[in-house]
Write a structure and sequence with these properties.
By secondary structure, this protein is of the alpha/beta class. The chain is built from eight helices and nine strands. The strands form three sheets. Strands 2-1-6-5-7 form a five-stranded parallel sheet, with helices on both faces. Strands 3-4 form a two-stranded antiparallel sheet. It starts with a strand and ends in a 9-residue tail after the last helix. The structure holds adenine (ADE). The site of adenine has 12 residues, from strand 5 and helix 5.
């Protein structure tokens, strides 16, 4: 997979993309990630990328030309263009799975007060990572890229995905490790019983209980008719 990120702040990505699992995924050529400064595509003599809003108001608005030219230079028929904006569709794990199967993602990070509305016509998908306003799409793109790259086959062990939160619309079950007792808090007896059937039942029930308590909204989404 190839991911091109259009940003005015490529340096914001350097540490994160050269650390941990994302670093390894690039080294193993599971993914190629490029950050592209769309200021380089500006035809303005001073490389301007924003201007005052028509109709008045505070702040500056990103202009069409640099972003259109940059996307058009990168795009092929296999590309999916994603625009990050707080008014986009809410990003969820299911979409992370779908996007991890794409060949080429182009991610546009908005900044400042906003972007010219016509930039939306470039996007196949407009995404928000939650109901809050960030200073820029860079933070959102880091979240989205991380959640996609870990799902690319071979990046982490497939079995690690099986029980994680949001699969089957259930939150993850609780995990414990050594020691068996810490400051008076005991590991549940069933987990040291060696009875794998009972352990699986316990974990499923704990997942269900946690989901009902913390995320009743998720229980509405189950498509298999499984009763919670
Ligand atoms: N840009 C600013 N806020 C954002 C959000 N919540 N999601 C995606 N992009 C954004």
């Amino acid at each position: 997979m190839k991911i091109d990120i259009l940003t005015l702040f490529p340096e914001m990505f350097e540490n994160i993309f050269s650390s941990s699992i994302i670093k390894r995924a690039q080294e193993e050529q599971k993914v190629v990630i490029n950050t592209i400064n769309f200021r380089d595509y500006s035809k303005d003599p001073h490389h301007k990328v924003d201007d005052t809003p028509y109709g008045g108001g505070d702040g500056m608005v990103l202009t069409c030309q640099p972003i259109f030219d940059c996307v058009e230079a990168l795009k092929t028929e296999k590309s999916k263009v994603i625009l990050l904006t707080p008014d986009g569709t809410k990003y969820e794990q299911k979409l992370a799975y779908n996007l991890s199967e794409e060949e080429h993602l182009i991610i546009i990070c908005g900044h400042y007060e906003g972007f010219d509305e016509r930039i939306r016509t470039l996007a196949d998908l407009e995404l928000s990572i939650g109901d809050y306003v960030l200073t820029g799409g860079e933070y959102a793109s880091l979240v989205i890229v991380d959640s996609i790259v870990r799902l690319i086959p071979g990046v982490i062990k497939e079995s690690s995905h099986q029980n994680e939160s949001f699969n089957e619309n259930l939150l993850d079950y609780p995990n414990y490790t050594k020691p068996r007792e810490f400051r008076g808090m005991e590991v549940p007896e069933v987990l040291v019983s060696g009875d794998h059937k009972k352990i699986a039942e316990y974990r499923k029930n704990e997942s269900i209980k946690k989901t009902q308590l913390r995320r009743p909204d998720m229980t509405l989404k189950r498509s298999d008719g499984y009763e919670l």
